[in-house]
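Researcher: Quick sanity check before group meeting.
Model: Go ahead. Protein one:
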Amino acid sequence: MDYLGIDHVEFYVGDARQAAFVLCSAFGFRLLGQGGPETGLPRQRSLLVGQGECRVLLTSGLVPDHPAVEYVSRHGDGVAAIALGTRDARAAYAASVAGGATGIEAPRVYAGGGATVVRATVSAFGDVVHRLVERDGDGGEFLPGVIAMLDVPPPAQPEPLLAVDHVAVCLEAGTLDATAKHYRTAFGFDVIFEEYIEVADQGMFSQVVQSPGGGATLTLIEPDASRSPGQIDDFLAWHAGPGVQHVALSCRDIVSAVDDLTARGVGFAPTPESYYTLLDGRLGVPDLPVGRLRPRGILADRDHWGLMYQIFARSLHVRRTFFWELIERHGSRTFGTSNIPALYEAKERELAAARATSEAGLR
């Protein structure tokens, strides 16, 4: 079974309106739709925001026993569902359950406004699920009859963020191989990249799993328990278990996107000057001049197919768990061998102060 891509991600949050305000004001998303008691969702409030082809559903529970309330109580705000687009949600559901996934919600049809959506839900990892989504008809509808779409005019100019490029997942030590196997057997994904990452005296194992057509990609990471604890251990402690560490958004122009988001108040993980000293010698001359990358902290790398440019935004979450990544690909299909350590070194520098504060509070 192939998948068309990541249809959307759903966050469970304490306050959907506040989370939507942050994404719209800081990252330039637009409010596209909403659902709640008045649309047939009596136990929750959901707001749909989007930019380019990226869709983010923000859901807050309105009653104590709603799954979103329970999730936020345990993990804080975070990604609860990664939706995979498919041409046949019923077949995808049957195949994933036959391959070992737990069926959570059987295929259900939502119709209206000239669109039909079939949606099913299966287990993924930790408390995160995969929604399997089949769409037909009016592409302006999201979940007919449940999410009421707003009359939003098209953007006046091209939006800087295009779509979800990949999702990064932090796993508990010793569970990486089993999780990668789950994606192979339940979803038909392939392992396309493996790497051992060292940051100072920390170590982490990584495998990248991807759907056969390349539409959906997840980076799976576990800490090396034989090395000193680091940011993956921090995530697992602060998030209370495995979960989504970051979502990478593809850009049409990462330099302009960083400038735009910086002007909106978004901070980015810093990169030391020494990173750029040997960049030309390592990559050849990149097609984005180093003089444009250096002042913004943007990293450059390549795989067998081309170049990529990446940067991490600083976390806006109170637990310092989830954050966003920006990525612009110039022909690359996977990941380079230099950016991942550099990205995690940048995030390690950012989290060092938070870790010290947390440890001081325990004394």
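Researcher: Fine. The other one?
Model: Protein two, sequence then structure:
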Amino acid sequence: MKEKECIVCNKSHHEIPLTSFDYKDTQFWICPQHIPILIHNPQKLVDLLPGAEGFEAAPH
């Protein structure tokens, strides 16, 4: 099983609280500090999350 760590900063669940999310039949984790990237700038996840190049930011 893959270690639970933030996809952005790589901090583990031993260091910081993590929130899990499922995408393309895979479970990923992200810390509270980086959830805004997932919501507002998901294109920054291109090298971290497969298929992120097609994501669009939330409308404001």
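Researcher: One line on it for the slide.
Model: The mean pLDDT is 90.
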